[in-house]
Amino acid sequence: MVFVLVSAGLVAATRPAIAATLCPRCYGLFGLGGDIYTDRRDTAYRRIVDEAESDIAAFYGDLKTRPRVLICSTAACYRRIGGGSERGKAFGTSALMLAPAGANRTIATHELSHVEFHERLGRTRADVPHWFDEGLAVLVSGDSRYLKPSSEADRCRLPYRKALPIVTEKWAAAVKGGTDQPYRQAACVVSRWASSHGGRTGVLELIATLRAGGTFGEAVDVSG
């Protein structure tokens, strides 16, 4: 028992985000039902998650995941649960956190897109590059900062030739410094690929191909 308590204490001290997702109430969060926890009893947060889940289900045809969601209304709360400068953060397929700036339908859908995509990929998740995962999340969430409206034939907010370099860049290096440009590039490349492959049909076929043993490079050609 002592070992368990010490281990739990070490997790809380070194990885508060993990500890907070395991025990939200330990970090002062309240349950809103549906495995949603916030620092403020506001049903608007529940609506945000419901709408985001609806967006994911609309894209994929159904919903395979319902992760635990932690939402903070203040920067102090988000720091307390282990958050940083990001608007939101997903933890595998089990949980995600939203900062005050990310407590909206668009960012919630973006983070839930990661969770749903990873769940559907299963063990093949490691075969998908970060740029595609992020670009898909922007596409599913319809983030107008990085994509034009769906009514536009070409949704890219920059020339395709300027977006394509993201395919060969290391994502961590590309986003270093907090620039949004990599998201704009990734969204452009993924939206162009998706539109030429039937939208969600292409994404579902990609998942099936990878799970059947195919490679990402063979399934996704974005050179054109």
Automatic annotation (TrEMBL):
Superkingdom assignment: Bacteria
Keyword Signal: yes
Keywords, in A-Z order: Signal
Cleaved signal peptide residues: 1-19
UniProt protein name: Peptidase MA superfamily protein
